[in-house]
Amino acid sequence: MQVQNLREYPMSMNYEIKIASELSIKPHQVKATLELLDEGGTVPFISRYRKEATGSLDEVQVAAIRDRVTQLRELDKRKEAVLKSIEEQGKLTDTLKKSVEEAETMSKLEDIYLPYKPKRRTKATIAREKGLEPLAELIFEQKSSNLSSEAESYVSEEKEVKSVEEALQGARDIISEWINENAPLREKMRKLFLEDGTFTSKVIPGKEAEAAKYKDYFDWSEPIKSAPSHRVLAMRRGEKELFLMLDSCPEELTALGVIEREILADEANESVDQVKLAIKDAYKRLLKPSMETEVRLLTKKKADEEAIRVFAENLRQLLLGAPLGEKSVMAIDPGFRTGCKLVCLGPQGQFLQYEAIFPHEPQRRSAEAGMTIKGLVEKYKVQAIAIGNGTAGRETEAFVKSLGLPKSVIVTMVNEAGASIYSASEVAREEFPDLDLTVRGAVSIGRRLMDPLAELVKIDPKSIGVGQYQHDVDQNSLKNALDDTVMSAVNGVGVEVNTASKQLLTYVSGLGPVLAQNIIDFRNQNGPFASRSQLLKVPRLGEKAYEQAAGFLRIGQAKNPLDASAVHPERYALVESMAKDLGASVAELVQSEELRQKINLKSYVSDQVGLPTLQDILEELAKPGRDPRETFEVFQFEESVNAISDLKTGMKLPGVVTNITAFGAFVDVGVHQDGLVHLSHLADRFVKDPNEIVHVNQKVQVTVMEVDVARKRIGLSMKSDPFAERGKKADKPNRNSQRREEPQGTMAEKLAMLKGKFGS
């Protein structure tokens, strides 16, 4: 029975039940979250202020629901297009429509659609034009043993079939296409490629010297299902740069066996022999290229997701680094030949003064430089000195420490990755139109010490230096993930509306660049905001945007203490009721722990407000506007170690984690070259995910395992006794282990990749 009208069969999908099952949560939680998202709610707002509706889902769960429903809706849109196309061909049956609607993935849907998909003129198309489809049907039945006489009747000059073999070839072309378009078979082949396929990488002959950085992949193979993301991306990059040949298939005999078991009859005759030939042709010419393309896309997507996850987690940790706070800061962008760029900043990061000093070779005007630093420290009552960790960083740190400055002045190194990107950006030009690029870079270094989050949001996250193959992954997916990460960090900390930059305000829930600029303009024209309610006077900032943003914006000097807290304005009346019931003011409730302990939260539960929100309010009243970030601690490198040549095997050194990858963590030990703590050396126990052990900006103790000065390689360990296994016979590979060690020679490649030495 054919479907006459597609509109009589509306598409339907119970998203709530499906997503709830996948995420192991309740359908009503998904339903409420979807409604809030569709109403324009942001992930931070929903997870923070709509806990009663969602059942206290966190940001990760809310974002997962958002992303999954987007996928399902895209799938449904594609289903509608497929059904419409098949209907227009007059081939849509109830059974076919049911198959389309029940397809759970895009791959399965496209498999079903493949026989009906408009395609270019193929070998099978040409064979059909010659009238050979009946012969193909006869052969495919696999019963005939006298094909020559059957095929003879299809030989025709008029139809350009000149021989029996040509007729049989045409029939086989049609059968090959049928095999390729068999949806259940394609699903089995897809599974075979993913579960039994192997990545095989070989160097292109004659390119061995050029491709030296890919030496580990000159003759490399490993199962597709267990290949880690960084190796998948490395091999693909080598292929893209025309250094490597990459194959991703199972054994051919295994693949042919799967098809034959699905297609071939048990008997032996001429028809079966013809079908065998068609199977080989279908696999080599159609199925294998198609499956390999699909598998490469699927593995690329999986590798992208892992690389993006690592990048996003590193970025989150970096953004949430401990802030020094509002202090008078001197910032130094170090250098040898061109000197050190020095700026002084006020407690709110305002630029005060710039000087260039030359304490190092070749000028070595150290006395003059020392006088300049001492004078500025006294003039601006400098409380901390931030020194960039680039070229001449350790030398400049040592020089500053030798000046005999007051002990109260903190001297510390700051990671300057991305500072040069900021200094040349439009954001920097808007902030400091009259300053040189190098001066802007010094300002960025100082502000990073004061508030890493507020400064780093001004830089494209891809330039901050905490990614893994970030230029090889899907850029839209990367951008979305990093935007989510920045938004989560910004809203988790909260933003002081009277001092925040446009870039920081842009990431506040419900705002964006236009409203952020409008807030800045309003602030400039009318002075500091005195209350949150005043935000409603900002042009184009309506009730919905106010609802989404207000709880994350802080006004420290507001008359109402709640304006400096994370309590949402929609709950002010509730807090006032709590205070009134205790015979106190809101300010007194904030100040008195004794009063807060008298609050019986259950008595304030209503249809709109439950215990989760009430508990959040009580916690916020205890520490209004609290900063969730760690307290700043001064870190010092080993003073006697300043260059890679100073390192010796066995040294134990303090270091700072600068980047985390799937295969380990990079640590700065103060020698202008990060060392690698491989996954196997992060702890005394087995480690699957480096984030179990370390986080970006973490202070760690490491042992130097190996140093290669020529290749700038440093191997480090965080084990308590890293040399315990030295001298023992190497263990044989465990075939049952799902963990593979990083190929020994790839450290240089990964280090070069992460430091931008190649392929940016």
From TrEMBL:
Residues 650-719 form the S1 motif domain. GO terms for biological process: nucleobase-containing compound metabolic process; translation. One of its GO terms (cellular component) is cytoplasm. Residues 722-743 have a biased composition (Basic and acidic residues). Residues 720-749 are annotated as: Disordered. GO terms for molecular function: mRNA binding; structural constituent of ribosome. CDD domains: S1_Tex. PANTHER family: 30S RIBOSOMAL PROTEIN S1, S1 RNA-BINDING DOMAIN-CONTAINING PROTEIN 1. This is S1 motif domain-containing protein. It comes from Algoriphagus zhangzhouensis.
